[in-house]
Design brief:
Layout: H1 2-9, E1 18-23, E2 28-31, E3 34-36, H2 43-54, E4 58-63, E5 74-78, H3 82-92, E6 97-100, E7 107-109, E8 129-131, H4 135-140, E9 149-156, H5 160-171, E10 175-180, E11 192-193, E12 195-198, E13 203-205, E14 209-210, H6 211-230
Parallel strand pairs: 1-4, 1-6, 4-5, 6-9, 9-10
Antiparallel strand pairs: 2-3, 7-8, 10-12, 11-14, 12-13
Bound molecules: cytidine-5'-triphosphate (CTP).
Length: about 230
């Protein structure tokens, strides 16, 4: 108990740091009752938000629709679409670091129907798509107020490291956590994750571990980054 007392009283490594985390899928409305979505559960992003808060960070979690409860000590902003997610992220700035773990839909339906689209005999509705804003790339490329550390995820089903490195360059972020989301991997909705941490200089192959363990390792890395920045 005495040890606990001192552990809790100790300065935590991310004390005083503001962090932004995105998580979950986005829902892109088709009409008032239908939407386009994906299989993201939000577990990895929520675990990251919790791990950062455990290290003392002030965390804003911008979350798409999930079944998860907001982690203790984390401020959650719930959104549905990619456009809303971008707006909520911009509202959360400035932050010291940002981790983009959300599975943002690449496309939205160009014009959301005001009323439920009715089924008509022999006539199929067609959906015209528009590209969503890339939230990670937008924040990475901010001219002023860019977070000191910007981390993206790369959900890949093949040539994970190569695709992850390409994504690092394309999006302009500092680190990419590349993971295998192929059907056999069980990543989507599952509790485990096997990831690579890619930077401009390095490739690290982390062992398959729980999403909570990935989050704790990543949060520790973030804390080390900021300790280096301060030094
Ligand atoms: N991302 C984002 N906004 C988007 C699309 C993606 O912020 N509109 C972020 C994700 O949160 C993730 C990273 O970009 O951190 C990579 O997402 P991913 O789906 O792997 O990449 P895409 O850019 O969609 O490329 P592709 O689907 O072609 O692999």
């Amino acid at each position: 108990a005495i040890v606990d007392f001192f552990a809790n009283g100790a300065e935590k490594p991310l004390q005083g740091r503001k962090m932004l985390v995105t998580a979950g899928p986005t829902h892109e409305p088709i009409d008032p009752v239908r939407y386009i979505a994906n299989r993201s559960s939000g577990k990895q992003g929520y675990a990251i938000a919790a791990a950062l808060a455990d290290l003392g960070a002030e965390v804003t979690l911008v979350s798409g629709p999930t079944r998860l409860e907001a982690p203790r000590g984390v401020t959650r902003k719930s959104v549905e679409s990619a456009k809303d997610m971008l707006a909520a992220c911009e509202a959360a700035l400035p932050v010291d670091g940002a981790i983009f773990a959300a599975a943002v839909a690449d496309w939205r339906v160009e014009t959301e129907a005001d009323q439920k689209i009715k089924k008509r005999d022999g006539e199929l509705p067609s959906l015209s798509l528009a590209e969503n804003p890339d939230i990670l790339a937008t924040v990475s490329r901010l001219k002023s107020g860019r977070p000191a550390l910007v981390v993206g995820f790369a959900a890949e089903t093949e040539t994970i490291i190569e695709n992850g490195k390409a994504k690092l360059a394309k999006k302009g972020c500092d680190w990419i956590v590349a993971n295998d989301v192929g059907n056999e991997s069980g990543t989507f909705g599952g509790d485990d994750n096997q990831v690579f941490l890619l930077t401009n200089e390095t490739v690290e192959d982390w062992p398959k571990q729980s999403k909570d363990a990935v989050a704790q390792t990543l949060a520790t890395r973030v804390a080390q980054f900021f300790q280096g920045v301060d030094a």
